[in-house]
Amino acid sequence: MSTKTEKAALRQHLLKKRDDMSFELKKISSQKIHQKLKESKLFNDAKKIACYYSIGSEVMTTELIMDIMKTKEISLPRIINNNLVFKKITSLEKLENGPYDIMEPRDDYETVNNNDLIIVPTIGITRLGDRLGYGFGYYDRYLAGIDAKTIALTFAQQIVKSIPNMEYDVKIDWIITEEDSFGTK
C-alpha cells in the first residue's frame, strides 16, 4: 500500500472517529484545550498568533479567536494562488466563505508574515509531532518556509502511534489536548 493510500485510510478513520463525538463533548473538550493553550508559555510569549477557523468536527476555535483578539494580534488563513497566506483580523464579522467552505479574511486585509505562533488544525498527530492534515499540503508548504513555533489543538483520541511520512511533511512543536499539553522534541 502506498504512503498516500495509507494516509487516506487513516484520515478517513480518524475523521469518522472525530465526527462521531457528540457536540457537547466537542464543546467541553474544546474549552479545556483553550484553557491549556492560554496557560502555555508558547502562547503567553507570543505577540502575533495565527489560528484556523474551525470547520466540521475540529477543535472549536471561534471563542478562542475572539479571546485572542482582545489582547494579541491574530491572523487567519486565506488561500491565494493555491497557497496559504495569513491575514490580520480585528473582527469575525467580515470574514467570507472561501474554498472548502472555510471562513477566511478578505483579500484586502493586511498580510502577516512574522507570526510568533501558528495554531495548526489536525486530523491526527503522533506524540513526536507528525501531523495528518486534510491532504492538500497547504500547511506543510507554508510551515516549511517560516520560523514560527507551531501548536496543534487536537482531541486526545486523535493521537496515534504513527503516521506515514512524506519528505515534505512538517513536524509540529507542541500538542494540546483536553487531557494533556506537551512538546514533541
Structural class label: alpha/beta
Strand order of the largest sheet: 3-2-1-6-9-10-11
Q: How many strands, what sense, and barrel or not for the largest sheet?
A: 7 strands, mixed
Separation, N- and C-terminal Cα atoms: 29 Å
Write down the overall geometry. Answer: globular
Count of individual helical segments: 5
Weakly predicted, low-confidence segments: none
Average of pLDDT = 93
Strand content: 15-25%
Helix content: 25-40%
Evaluate the radius of gyration.
15 Å
* Elements, N to C (H/E): HHHEHEEEEEEEHEEE
- The total of beta strands comes to 11
Structure in words:
The protein is 30% helix and 22% strand. The strands form three sheets. Strands 3-2-1-6-9-10-11 form a seven-stranded mixed beta sheet. The chain is globular and about 45 Å long. It is of the alpha/beta class and 185 residues long. The model has no long low-confidence stretch (mean pLDDT 93). Strand 2 (73-80) and strand 3 (83-89) form a beta hairpin. It contains five helices and eleven strands, in the order αααβαβββββββαβββ.
